[in-house]
Design a protein that fits this description.
single chain, 75 residues, mainly alpha, 4 helices, 83% helix
């Protein structure tokens, strides 16, 4: 495994989450242009991340939202 592949594997979650600095983003993006394995891995990881995050997002019950709004109005 090349050092650039290792970098992608070590930082893919931060890349997908938008937590890398610009230079690191460029490093990942430059690498995946020339490495089909990392490009494929990153694509799959990104899709999985999107599905997982979507499952974790739930709406608070209306009663809880009303209670919070009421407390904020009183503050």
């Amino acid at each position: 495994m090349s050092p650039e592949c290792a970098f992608v594997l070590d930082h893919y979650n931060d890349y997908i989450s938008g937590e890398l600095v610009a230079g690191e983003v460029a490093r990942v993006e430059d690498h995946i242009k020339s490495c089909p394995n990392c490009e494929k891995f990153l694509g799959k990881a990104s899709r999985l991340h999107g599905r997982t995050v979507g499952l974790l997002r739930t709406s608070a019950p209306q009663t809880l939202r009303n209670s919070i709004s009421s407390l904020l109005d009183k503050a």
